[in-house]
Structure formats: C-alpha cells, structure tokens
Design goal:
Blueprint lengths: L7 H53 L2 H11 L4 E6 L13 H12 L8 E6 L9 H4 L11 H6 L7 E7 L5 E7 L9 H39 L14 H47 L4 H26 L8 E3 L1 H14 L3 E4 L7 E3 L1 H19 L1 E9 L2 E7 L26 H4 L4 H11 L3 E6 L5 E8 L1
Parallel strand pairs: 6-8
Antiparallel strand pairs: 1-4, 2-3, 3-4, 5-7, 8-9, 9-11, 10-11
Helix pairs in contact: 1-6, 6-7, 7-8, 9-10, 10-12
C-alpha cells in the first residue's frame, strides 16, 4: 500500500496542501488568540469605566432614588445590587492575585480617593457561590467549555468579576459581571475570509504545479514518440532556465540520433548496392560451370548467402523505414496474409472479430506478422491468428502447436542469429533474424512482442500495439 502519490504532480500537490493547511492553521490559531485577548482587554476596560460611572451616578442620587435606578443600569451580563454591609467574597487563589491587583489599581484610578473597594475575580478554578445567571460562564456551565476557550486564549483568564464599592454615605453597591457568550461565538466572517484565502492559495498552487509539471509531461511524450518517429518536431525551448536547458539537450540528442541513423542508412544502402555486383558476377560464373553437381552446390550456397545478406541488411535497417503511417483495415491485412499462406500450402486459421482501423505502416506490419506466421508454420505446422483490444492496446496473437521454446530461451531467440536448432541450416531454422526484425517493427510502432509457451503445447507470440 502506497501512502504517497506515485506521480510528481500528486506529491507536489500533497506537499503544498500540507504546508498551506499547517501554516493557515497556525496563523488562524495566533489570530484567534490575539482576537480573544484584545476582546478580553476591551471588555475589562469597558467594565472599569462603566463601574466607575455607575458609582458616581449613584453617589449623586438620594438613597430613595438609587433603588429605582438599578433596573435601568442592570443588563443581562451585569447584575447590580445595594446592601448596607459588604458580603463575603472568595479569597483569591495564588494564580489570580496578580490579575486582581492589576484590575483593582485600574478601577481605583477612576474612583474618588479613599474609596473602599473589594474585588474578587473568578477564574477557571473558582466557581463557588455564584448566582445561577452567571454559572454558565464557568467551566462545565455551558459555552465556556470546549476547545474554543483555548483557541481564543481565554481558558486561563478571569471569567467573572465580583466588585463591591462603598458609596460616600456608607452604602455598598455590588457589581457581578461575567464574560458575554458572544465572546465565544464562532467568528464567522473571519473564518470565511480565512477559508476563501486558503481556497485561493490552493487553487493558485494547483495551477502553478500543473504549469511546472507540463514541460516534464511534454518531455515524456516526446521521448515516447521518438521511438516511433525520429523525424518528429523538436521540443519548444521555452520556459524557465532548467526547462529550456532540458529541452535543448533533448533536441540535441534527437538531432544526433537522426544524423546517426541517416549515416547508417546511407552506409547500408551503399553496402547493399555494392554487394549486388560481386554476387551477380558469381552467379554468371556459376552458369558457366560444366560440373552439374558442383554448380548445384554453389548455387545453393549463393542463394543462402544472398538470403543472409538481405535479411542481415533488413535487420540492421530495422525501423528506419520511410513508409508513412496511414489508417489501415487490420482484419483485411490479416485475411490477405492468411490467403497467401494458404495458397503456399500452409494451414492458417483466423478468428474473425470486428476491430477498428489502426494507424500504422502497412508494409512493415505485414512483414512483422508474416515473420511470426512463417515461424509458426515452420515449427508448429499451423498458425492460429486472433486479435483483441485491451484498454488502449491492440493485441495480435499468432499461436502454433509445435514443441515450444525453453523458458530460459524465450528472450534469447530475439538476439541476432540465435537459433535453437544448432545445425545452422536454413531449411531447418532460417537465418535467426526473423523474430528480431518482427520485434524491431513492433517497437517502431511503440509496441513490443512477447513469447510464451501454451499450456496445451506450442508457442504463442503476441504483438502488442498501442492505440
């Protein structure tokens, strides 16, 4: 099981996505913590100013009017009450002392001098003796629970303020304030902005990675096409420096291969032409021989020599044919091969199957199939031809009922002049170049040839051609 994608595009996309998600998560965490802390500081400052303002207002009113004013000053998050004596408040824990002193000093700066003040700050560890209306702000009481308190950085801050201030006439006014629930709501707009930003960056990254991978894909396609057509157009030398240098190196390799093949083709043509003259002179001299037996043996040797020279040149020429590709009816081609073999006395059976036309070199493909059919007839007495389409491939099978080939020799039989029959006589084993020529033609079409022994006896050759 592969966890990482196999393609370079998939791996780059995965790496970018992981990096983007990680950085966006860290950024969102820092942003939300700063947001929570700023909101907390703002609410605390607002509470200090509002508390000081209410104290000054109540000091300015007669005692009878104060009680009437309380309902107007009380809100959902702020409870205000009056009493003659201060009530007991929880002792601050060690972790709350510093925050308590800071809050008390800030509040005293807004109150008259020598104002009696008692403050308790309830945090995550102190939740005793709170009114029911404010218990929801403490751990286990409601929306204060969960990871959002940690995300906002509010899990360790004061969540409830208990303030008692003595008015000038000795009356105590008590303020109870908890953090509002809205402080812990999901910041929808902020999350939408972060989501849109993340989606935009991911989209741009995908487009960028695809544009970077495209030259590699073009290079792969050009490399695959080079085996089928050495004269294909060169790659465009555009893009980043590395891409331009790679395309330039590939084009240089293609031009060198083209020159090499053209030079070899010229040499082969010259050799083929020059060999005809001495072979013709030898044939004329044979005709003038008086000894019939010697002349027959010499003619046989000359025929073998001409056959070996022609097949050797053809093998060396390999895929260097100038025959153009064209749409051809493959079944019609196989039927013509079957008919030619039958007229020569061979038993060839063709499985009829509707196959779409194929884009290839008709004469080269015919030579490839004929070589395999002749092998099947020579060693197996008959040839069974079948055609099938498998995905994007076209498979032509030529099977016989002969002795087959040892498993260790299934690949060696493609080597030049390799024959299982060791006598080297043409009438028993040919020149040993037929399979090599057939495979060269198949590979020139972007395909290949595979051999395997049949379970019931015999050999099966499969020509696999890409669509």
């Amino acid at each position: 099981m592969h966890i990482l994608p196999r393609s370079l595009f998939g791996r780059l996309v995965l790496l970018l996505l992981l990096g983007l998600i990680l950085t966006q998560s860290i950024s969102a965490f820092i942003l939300l913590r700063d947001r929570g802390q700023l909101l907390y500081e703002s609410l605390r400052e607002h509470l200090i100013i509002r508390t000081a303002g209410i104290v000054r207002l109540l000091d300015s009113l007669p005692p009878a009017e104060r009680q009437k004013m309380l309902p107007l000053l009380t809100s959902q998050d702020l409870h205000i009450s009056l009493s003659d004596q201060p009530i007991a408040i929880p002792e601050p824990d060690r972790d709350s002392v510093l925050a308590l002193e800071l809050f008390k000093g800030q509040l005293l700066r807004h109150l008259p001098r020598n104002t009696a003040l008692r403050i308790a700050i309830e945090g995550p560890l102190t939740e005793r003796r709170l009114p029911p209306m404010h218990r929801r702000y403490l751990p286990g009481g409601g929306r204060m629970e969960g990871p959002w308190a940690y995300m906002h950085g509010l899990h360790a801050m004061a969540r409830f303020f208990h303030i008692q201030v003595q008015l000038q006439d000795g009356t105590w006014v008590r303020f109870e304030r908890g953090l509002p629930e809205q402080l812990f709501d999901w910041p929808a707009r902020l999350l939408i902005v972060l989501g849109v930003l993340l989606a935009s960056v991911i989209l741009l990254s995908l487009v960028g990675v695809r544009s970077l991978i495209r030259p590699l894909r073009d290079l792969r396609q050009a490399a695959e096409g080079l085996g089928r057509d050495i004269h294909q157009l060169p790659l465009p030398e555009t893009g980043p420096t590395e891409v331009r240098e790679t395309a330039r190196a590939f084009n240089t390799m293609q031009s060198r291969l083209k020159r090499y093949i053209e030079d070899r083709a010229g040499i082969l043509a010259a050799v083929s032409h020059d060999l005809k003259t001495p072979l013709t002179r030898i044939r004329l001299r044979i005709e003038m021989m008086d000894d019939e037996e010697l002349r027959a043996k010499t003619e046989k040797d000359l025929a073998e020599m001409e056959s070996m020279v022609s097949t050797t040149l053809e093998f060396m020429r390999g895929s260097e044919t100038t025959e153009p590709n064209q749409r051809l009816d493959l079944m019609a081609l196989l039927e013509s091969i079957q008919q030619d073999a039958s007229e020569a006395g061979g038993q060839v059976y063709l499985s009829e199957q509707p196959i779409a036309t194929y884009d290839g070199k008709p004469l080269a493909l015919k030579r490839c199939i004929v070589n395999l059919v002749e092998n099947a007839l020579r060693y197996g007495g008959q040839a069974d031809i079948a055609v099938e389409e498998s995905g994007k491939s076209l498979i032509i099978s030529i099977c016989d009922k002969g002795p087959g080939i040892p498993a260790e020799s299934l690949q060696r039989v493609f080597d030049p002049f390799f024959r299982l029959e060791s006598s080297r006589a043409q009438h028993t084993g040919g020149t040993g170049l037929g399979l090599g020529i057939a495979r060269n033609i198949a590979r020139a079409h972007g395909g290949d040839i595979e051999l395997h022994n049949r379970s019931g006896g015999g050999l099966c050759a499969k020509i696999m051609l890409p669509r």
